[in-house]
């Protein structure tokens, strides 16, 4: 299933920051989520900045380092690049991954952070796998600021289908994907808004 390529198959490898810093200077940026988690990202600022930004969002079970190979492509075109570690991954705090639900609200906060740095920034959201699903949700969030385009790579449109497909004989048990348990779980995630 392409939506989980980054989490199951070794098709995406982590890169060292040295692989990305040859094209732009780097600094750590942080935000605090609505539920008080410290979230971390690496900002790569090219010498020839154009006012265009891209936020790189990794797939399930990965870190921002899996997105570093994209830094050269964007930085060479004058994009400021922000590679983020979503909640519960890499350098960001958190215990649970919500498959894009809470992460999309966090991503809206990242766009606001960029707007604080450059109010006229034009932002591209680029996500892979679970990160692609996250950017689709964030693009529909009214709190998302200055987004002009998205690059959706291997996302899924309905996580329930992914879990049901992978559930039998995989890391998810048939009990978890049973209708009553599944509905209860996703009702709670759906209501767990980061804006409470």
The amount of beta strand, in percent, is 15-25%
| Count of separate DSSP helical elements | 7
- The coarse silhouette is globular
| Secondary structure: number of strands | 6
Euclidean distance between termini CA atoms: 33 Å
Query: SSE string, helix = H, strand = E?
Result: HHEEEHEHEHEHH
**Could you report the average pLDDT, rounded to the nearest whole number?**
79
Instruction: Summarize the main sheet.
Output: 6 strands, mixed
Quaternary structure classification: single chain
Helical percentage: 25-40%
Radius of gyration: 17 Å
Give the structural class. Answer: alpha/beta
Outline the low-pLDDT stretches. Answer: 1-12, 168-178, 188-196
Strands of the widest sheet, in order across it, are 1-2-4-3-5-6
Please give a handful of descriptors for the protein shown.
196 residues, alpha/beta, six-stranded mixed β-sheet, 7 helices, 6 strands, disordered N terminus, disordered C terminus
Structure, described:
By secondary structure, this protein is an alpha/beta fold. 32% of the residues lie in helices and 21% in strands. It has seven helices and six strands, in the order ααβββαβαβαβαα. The chain has a six-stranded mixed β-sheet with strand order 1-2-4-3-5-6. β5, α5 and β6 (147-153) form a beta-alpha-beta unit. The longest helix is centred in the middle third of the chain and has 17 residues, at 101-117. It is globular and about 45 Å long. Mean pLDDT is 79; it is low at 1-12, 168-178 and 188-196.
